[in-house]
Give the backbone structure.
Amino acid sequence: MKLTTLSLALCTTAMATAAVAEDLRMSWWGGDSRHAATQAALEVCGAKYGHTISPEFTGWGGHFEKLTTQIAGGTEADLMQVNWPWLSFYSADGTGLADLNNHADTIDLSNWDAAQVEAGSMNGALNGLPISTTGRLFVFNTTTYAAAGLDLPQTWDDLIAAGPVFAEKLGEGYYPFEAGGLDAALLMTLYGTQATGKALIDPDTNEIAWTQDDLVNAINFYQTLVDNNVIESWRDRAADGNVPLHENPEWSNGQIAGTYQWDSTYFKISDPLADGQEVEYVDLLTQDGQRTTGIYRKASMVFSISANSEKQEAAAEVLNCLLNEPEGVAAMGTARGIPASATAREQLLSADAIQDVQIEAQAKVINAEGPAIHPMMEFPSVRSAMVDNLEMFAYGEIDAETAAEEMIFAIQEALEDIK
Amino acid sequence: MGGDSKFLGLWYVAPYAVGLLLFTAFPFVASFYLSFTDYNLLSSPEWVGTDNYEKLFTRDRTFNKSLSVTLTYVFMTVPIKLTFALFIAVVLNDKLRGINLFRTAYYVPSILGGSIAIAVLWRYIFAQAGLINMIITAFGGEPVNWFGDPDNALVTITILRCWQFGSAMVIFLAALQSMDKSLYEAASIDGARNWHIFRYITLPLITPVIFFNLIMQTVQAFQEFNGPYIITEGGPLKNTYLLPLYIYDEAFKNFDMGYASAIAWVLFTIIMVLTLIAFWSSKKWVYYAGDKRD
């Protein structure tokens, strides 16, 4: 009888295991360190639940286009890394992605606070679980600043004063900061946000919150940085073609000594540094009479499950393993920043798996104040409205007033499209 | 299915026909329909009539800029590339030692040309501290801002395209090698010099091949994407923002598939009109075997 019961139990277990073992796909974007960590995590989580998970990973460039095309064709991966602002595009009514509330028995949702759950919810459906919170911070190369005999800047005036010192002490081709393309547009936005106390686009009204004069001041500030040798001119920066910062040798060797980046991209920008080059995050620079620190903070990204997937439960198991369970958390580490999941954060902190620099950067992001960010700020139509007109201004094709006028017109047109 | 079945031929062409219908004809017709809709990929297309075309021709400055850049690019690229390909083909038509090695070497860029790696390589070669500027400064010149200067960026992309002259060159070479040698001998006996032989014998007899290469290279130039996308992303000031990049951005960044389809159809129409003009003009300058003209 005992033998029969044991046989039955073994048979049932085997059948159960066989029943849940699935072939899954997971997609994400990132750099090499994230790719390696995620593949390691998928191996341990797959082994734990008996699933086979095919990784599909790319760089940031083109991922939005790829993922959207897949979702439109119903061929997206079962488990996906999704940028937070994309949720409103993919699932405005909450049905475009799986509702993770339906898998609450599998995913331990108690690891996220109410605000984080709200950030990942669309129309009441939990479409994405925040992986981490991120914000744009200033990163400076301490080695180069020391060579110039300067302390790291704390105010915009400090930064502007550093430009001529770099030129004088370090020579031509050395800059205390960098900003081109989107980074220049976001830097300009930060300056304006601090001055006005308002985000460029008001998330409550879907309207532009700045006046044209506010925008003109912010645009002129960009030119101040160029004129004082703080950043390379747009024309000079474009001379190397379409090269991202972390692939730029001038960043690696310390000729460019500062940037404005997401804190979750620490490894991406610190890994390429040459031996002897050190970087450090600092608080957002301040200006006289500012009305807010102006932090640009958001859920850095979320994990979502495809609404079209027939293996949602298996995907939920893997998702929970990656975000909450010891094996997955240990393998994933901080490849996506400091985890939003309380359990994962505690595990990594107690294992000393989070570097001090990341903890400090995260604290700066969390503690800084700033107005809420409108998801449209990350949409290509709004971004190109800002970047294209700032570029025209930078090349001297239009003046600041015209650039501001054109930006407002183009952003309003983009906002009209979503109404 | 017997060997004498009257349907046997249909079976043979079926794989191609199905592929053509599914992957060419259907998207072709669908894109025409979509060009009259507002379609963001994730929801159903909504009929908007001619709104997309009206916006394109009356309010879209980016389209005007992109069209102007594209036409400039095509009218620069095609003549330079064809001239260079013909020149190299004439050189390689001689019986030189190791000629096969040279023929292969000149064809290699065309095999590699469409790859992303070559576009990245091009970016490094023409960068501020790249190989080209190193050579210029070694001879005492000033470095050139190839990608950041709006006047130079399109030229740099054009050079990349022209560098991939191999396929046109091979077709020219085949034409040159099939020439009737007795015509050259007769001309030489009559005292014709090399240039006259080339101008009055070779060139007229290869006009069908020039015409073929002209059409193919024009169509390909209008569809150029990889080079400007990887190297400059359409900048600076949209001076390398060719229409295929604009179509891509509208379709896959702004997710306005209806508008992107409208641009694609305008591009198709331009290519078709230019091709028809080329065919019409070919009656005046292309000579085929048995032609009775003087």
